[in-house]
Predict the 3D structure of the following.
Amino acid sequence: MAEVSRSVVVTIQNPQGLHLRPMDLFVKLASQFKSKVEVLRAGERVDGKSMLAMMTLAAVQGTQLRLEATGPDAEAALDALAALVARGFGEMNEDQVAPSNATRT
Amino acid sequence: MGGCRAAYAVAVDRAPETEPAIPTARRRPRGPMQKLQGIAVSSGIAIGEALVISNEGYYIARRLIPRDSVEGELQQFRRALEQVAAKIEGNRQQVDRELGEQYAAIFTAHLQLLRDPRLRDEVEAFIRERHYSPEYAVSTTLRRYVKLIQQMDNPYLAERANDLVDLEKALLSSLLGARHQGLADLAAPVIVFAHNLTPSETASLHRQFVLGFVTEVGGAGGHTAIVAKALEIPAIVGAGQFPGEVTGGGQVVIDGDEGLVILAPDEPTLEQYRRRADARRSRTQRLSASCDLPAQTTDGERISIQANIEFPEEAAICLERGAEGIGLYRTEFLYLGARQEPTEDEHFAAYTNVARTMGGRPVTIRTFDLGADKLGTGFEEKNPFLGLRSIRLSLRRLPLFRTQLRAILRASVEGNVRVMFPLVSTLSELRQARRLLADTMEDLQEEGLPFNRNLPVGMMVETPAAVVTLASFLPEVDFISIGTNDLIQYTLAVDRTNPEVGDLYSASEPAVLKLIEQSVAAASARDVPVSLCGQMSGSPLYVMLLIGLGLRSLSVPPSAVPEIKTVCRGVSARHCADVARRALSLEGAREVDAFLREELRKASPEHANC
């Protein structure tokens, strides 16, 4: 099977930033896909399926992260994860949610 | 992108390949004498060898395991993972049920962390490939991430490092719990140096092996300080970060009166401290020579001096000091710092131990007086002292309360056990608690378990509400105990730990004295025995006043028993009544203090400085 590598840039929306609860949701969602998922921020690259690794990532509201997926379902994984980030991990009121903040590359 | 693919892995590998800071008992050449200043929380002098322990009270030694036990150790680690996961899951469900899903989310996140395949893989690799013991592998792995987080120097992330430290602690507890490598297993006398000690760790210190302890953090009002004082172990907290000279094996002196730690003391200093230690010993011996004499006033009134304790080990000290019973057995220590809620058998073992040690002397067990915060519900109260605490919490957490009541009832046949409910402020609370006690008796009856059906039931009087309506409570209790610490706080509306208003907190305020007088009068009118506990009763300054107000039973810290008895023996109840009358006529705390000091000086010149 061909290895497909995709990436997308997202901006953290929720006021409290990427704290434990959103991280938990992110890791759970990422783990549902076969593809390898990684999160990049300013030269750091962490495993998006590992809570432990994600803990070392500081991301407050407004921080831009690059999500990178490699594998058979890379596209679907990125769509789902970018949507989760855009929804503010369900921590925001509907009217605060940006329509879409994902920038494809 | 490919170039930085392994950035994370590289970052980890680049972390210096040194071991995490794991203190070990090493002997170092003696350096020059050095002093550290901390907060004196438990008086006394200790001279001995230092033992430096890791944060959680365990020695996480770099222990290697034999090749053929790798599989067994891997199993140990996996079992620990499961155990901790089960505990977190238990917390999650409870909080979910009681407070709702959003509060439980943090536990879900902790579970996820625990189940991270990376954590498992890294720890297992250390065990399998480097033959690290599981506890050392866990510590090494998690400390690495803690360090990574701390290196980012972002205060927002500090909390996150704490989450990992908690996880490490939970795993180590689970791993080492089975192996008993805690502080409780010391075999030679030492002075313990630790970043921090929890109250339960302090309580488990063996008096014969722990000469004293010093911690980097902590304050005067902490529970650790209270325990150290109760155990009469010289202790200093809040000494700040230990310098490199603090290593195992070196000789140190701790001066628990001044809060001073002396590293590598020179000979004249040592000699001076040896002399002071001797002088202390002979003073204690002198006091204890008379401590078995009854506290009888010069005009023949018997005052019963009992003791307040926090945990079972103290009962023996109470007897040594001449206490006539346990007037207040605080049971919170069973909950604080415990890995999980104490079981009925753990309660039972503790109560039985105290009841048996005290022989036929009364042992008044106070049901738990915790705030909701102490039970880790994750729910933060704006005003915890006006919140869900004490009897209120017990009546909301019936299974927890029932467990304790069952244990108290079962222990009631092991000695002269009494039960007391704290912070009762309405009649309905008292009735609910009594009804639950009656139900619990029925349960035990059905199960054929022995208990004392006539177990005396009392309440603490520690809110102004209870004082002013005391007459309606009295027909429904066998005894009352005035708890002055809370009574003062609630009467004067002062939090004594708040430096802005702490000076307003005083047992000598006329409002407090009048409430005590009123309580004693109401109880005496109905022949309900009344006692008084709290810090006020342990101070020689108030002894005459309290006797004068009609109290004939006081419960004081064990170490204060001989002194309070001595004061009682030197005064007449008739004169004390005059003292109380006069004190009640004064305008303010300052006048009352000055007057009581003068009266004490006249009655007992050696207490001139109280």
In short: Chain B touches chain A through 28 residues (CB under 8 Å).
